[in-house]
Design a protein that fits this description.
Elements: E1 5-10, E2 16-18, H1 38-47, E3 56-58, E4 64-68, E5 72-78, E6 83-85, E7 88-90, E8 96-98, E9 104-106, E10 115-119, E11 150-152, E12 175-181, H2 190-198, E13 200-203, E14 211-215, E15 230-231, E16 236-238, E17 246-248, E18 255-256, E19 260-264, E20 280-285
Length: 289
């Protein structure tokens, strides 16, 4: 039994292992996956002295609790939340030393949705197609964590960052998503396109790592019937039969049969990871590059 491991004491609502994902396999039906808030994942890795590609834990809403078998340095970022070691409050957004056998507790998000837990050495589960990420849609990678799961850790690469705290973006009070219209914009009425780009939607509680679902006015189709299944990209805004836009996120399917009215700019996607249910969403049309 290795002493470089984490024991999951409380898995929380949904805690998964994530890294930078597995790009380049869409032709095999495998999405990119990876941390939804990539910048937050990269930051906690930097704080504990890991390379950017090291795997971290991604929690959802109510955090998690883990117990290391040996002393480790951890950092929690992303959604602001209380953090404690054996019941003693410690810093969020800064490196913290956790003794062997101590309980690290990541609490419920004060705002936002997903917290990221970086551990010195990184989570060293077996990679699949070059990534340790959990993919909820395809089932690749380790399954979502459950109480009692034991996660192996790698060896630390270097010293942790010498900082007290690092500024991080606030979770969005309003989600503004710049979109390029198309490729199936012509499947919708002009009024529908106007509605998409001028009305405010809200994040649905049915959102997950596969897609950010919205609540708001339905978009009217100009073309009826079925669309043959075609390739889907990260950030595609697909419109299912109920007419409410869905923004495809990291674990999205690589093909789909509902029309895509627009695609979100990649720079705007990280904020979707922290948009809690009820957050206003605006789609802003921009010109094609």
């Amino acid at each position: 039994m290795t002493d470089r491991a984490l024991v999951v004491v409380r898995a929380g609502a949904l805690t998964t292992v994530q890294d930078q994902g597995r790009p380049g396999h869409a032709h095999l039906g495998v999405p990119r996956s990876g941390a939804l808030d990539a910048s937050a994942a990269a930051l906690v890795n930097r704080l504990v002295g890991n390379p950017p590609e090291a795997a971290v834990l991604e929690t959802t809403l109510n955090g998690c609790a883990v117990r290391p078998r040996s002393a480790v340095t951890v950092a929690v970022g992303g959604a602001p939340c209380p953090v404690s070691v054996d019941g003693r409050p410690v810093a969020w957004g800064a490196p913290v030393r956790v003794p062997a056998g101590a309980l690290l507790s990541v609490g419920t998000a004060v705002s936002g949705v997903r917290a990221y837990v970086g551990v010195s050495g990184g989570v060293a589960v077996e990679p699949v197609l070059g990534s340790r990420s959990t993919d909820l849609l395809s089932g690749l990678g380790p399954p979502p964590l459950t109480d009692g799961t034991v996660l192996p850790l790698g060896r630390p690469n270097g010293p942790h960052a010498r900082v007290d705290v690092v500024p991080q973006p606030r979770p969005p009070a309003e989600l503004v998503l710049r979109v390029t219209l198309g490729p199936r914009e012509d499947w919708f009425t002009a009024a529908a396109v106007h509605t998409l780009t001028t009305h405010t939607y809200r994040v649905s509680s049915a959102s997950n790592r596969i897609g950010l679902r919205t609540e708001g006015p339905a978009l009217e189709r100009a073309v009826g019937g079925e669309l043959p299944s075609e390739g889907m990209v990260l950030g595609a805004v697909q419109v299912p039969p109920d007419g409410r836009p869905v923004v495809f996120l990291a674990d999205h399917p690589t093909t789909g049969g509902y029309p895509v009215i627009a695609v979100v700019r990649s720079d705007d996607l990280p904020a979707t990871a922290q948009a809690a249910p009820g957050t206003p969403v605006r789609f802003v049309a921009v010109r094609r590059r």
